[in-house]
Model the fold of this input.
Amino acid sequence: MNTAVFPGSFDPVTVGHLDIIARAAAIFDRVIVCIMVNGGKHPLFSMEERLRFLRAAITCIPNAQAVLCDGLLADFARKQGARTLVKGVRGCADFDWEFQMAQINRGLWPELDTVFLPAQTKHLHISSTMAREMIRYRQDLSGCIPAGALEAVLESAEGKDNYGK
Ligand code: PNS
Done:
């Protein structure tokens, strides 16, 4: 079985992420969406909340599953028998960063490769950072959060009254 891991902080999952998951699921037998810690970011949602959002978003993709991992990505992939990481890229800035991460991960496990899927043009401006900003200002999230996850995100966002203040 050809398994790929799609890692990220998914704080929260966006329609751009969902598009990458669906496209990866059309290429690989199994896609494990792995919610991980990004040491450079201060998350809005807990890991468990993000897992709930992701699971609600991917119910329509039978060969995708979402899990939590707080360790090294390369170790996780090796334990899962997955030799491919999937990353979505929206442009040169994303690519520069992800290219470095691909080298680091390959250094940690030489059999681990990374494939890049270009974001669709309509998703280029969408990011979790943008979604968090929209949550902060109580803006309509329907264009950036997957329909299946919207209710759970709105419910969790209700409890974040002090976010950004
Ligand atoms: O969605 P993000 O925040 O860009 O995802 C980044 C993430 C979580 C994939 C990255 O920070 C990561 O791989 N974290 C796990 C720890 C790890 O393996 N780091 C790279 C080697 S030091």
